[in-house]
Design brief:
Keywords: Oxidoreductase. It holds the Pfam family Aldedh. This is Aldehyde dehydrogenase family protein. The structure is a single chain. The chain contains 16 helices and 20 strands. With 481 residues, the chain is α/β, with parallel strands linked by helices. Strand 15, helix 13 and strand 16 form a beta-alpha-beta unit. The radius of gyration is 24 Å and the shape is globular.
Length: 481
Amino acid sequence: MNQRLFIGGTWTEPEGGHYDVVDPATEAAVGAAPEATRDQVDAACAAAREAFGPWSRTAPEERAAILARAADLIRERLVPYAGLAQAETGATTGTARAMQVGVAAARFRRYARVEPAEWPIAPQINEAGPMGKAGVVGALAVRQPVGVVACISSYNNPWANAAGKIAPALAMGNTVVVKPAPQDPLSVYRMAEVLEEAGAPPGVVNVISGASVEVGETLVASPDVDMVSFTGSTAVGRRIAEVCGRDMKRQLMELGGKGVALVFADADIASAVAGIGTTFSFYSGQICTAPTRVLAQRPVYDRLVEALTTYANRLPVGDPRDPQTVVGPVISAAHRERVESYVELARKEGARVVTGGDRPPHPQGFYVPPTLLADCTNDMRAAREEIFGPVVAVIPFEDEEEGIALANDTDYGLIDYVWTADIAKAFRTARRLRAGGVGINTVARNMEAPFGGFKKSGVGRDVGSYALHAYSEVQSIVWPG
């Protein structure tokens, strides 16, 4: 089926034609995605601008009801939607159902909860002066919608990532133009269908896509766009920020990561291995929060490398539709070659490839085996740059001070992890790590906790109530008491 664009409440034929969306596991075409032209991107932005006034004035309870209906519809269609997500992304069945479509439904449900948008501020007593007579001045802080939000989502999780932008943006009264990643845009069009069915007025949600970079460039530069919410690489985020800076557009950026797992000598090694091992299995390492850089204290270094090797070797690699599969393919042939090039570079730099590194014998599909690099140093490119694949680099350290220094010696700062039996040391270390989040003896997330990065890992925070702040401007209103 040839997918159409969704502009101003109308399913529109793309003037740029279509391109194939490829299943990473089979290399077969999943469907034909629409290629928007510059004029169609501009039309989507104009539709969102026109819809903004009425939608921003809609009662929050009415907006919430639409989000709740969308959540119900996604949940009802979980199995077919997960099948499409699996075909587009190569995710395993469990991941596609629970972590992609399931999380998307949960995010729409979360923002169907109306929260206060006004906060009283303590009255202030003013003395008489140039600004007026003496008196008491009252004040109120009010969250207002930003306007038209360009939502540019990542390929690793088209459902959860897009929903995490669209739902809080709509809840706050913004309108959106969504540009999904070119590799897997079809799922986001299903999301648009759901929102249309749930009652979103024309122009409130618009979806445009394209394999050409000009689609995203046109969207970001549009004078109708007030804010850009982007998830993706730091390199692309930097270019977007440059364009936004020229017009002072609000930004929310979730960018690259090189999460460190700091494993102290007193750690529960089995727990650490299970957490670090998610890099091998979860999205085949295509996730910015993965603990891809492991710092192991000398007394447990050899034991940790051995345990990680055993763990990696037990993970079945193959067809993500097979219930036994744990590690599916990466998104594309080009990305597979990129990941493989980092492994080869690590070899040349002196790292020891303990397991993995060689392409598995699958006739079709873009597979990379779980790969463990030992005896690394923190200056190796494989230890410093985001690989975005099932590759873990292990680096030894001597004491707490060196471990923290090595952990912070990176351009990134999204999520780090600490494993130790000493809780005081765990929290002491966490506070010294330059990262937006720190997991202590876990890789689990609290979905109400603020999410975002330090340094080149991003700008701003979202998730939970923090997302409502991210997609709003705060207005102060003052009056004489």
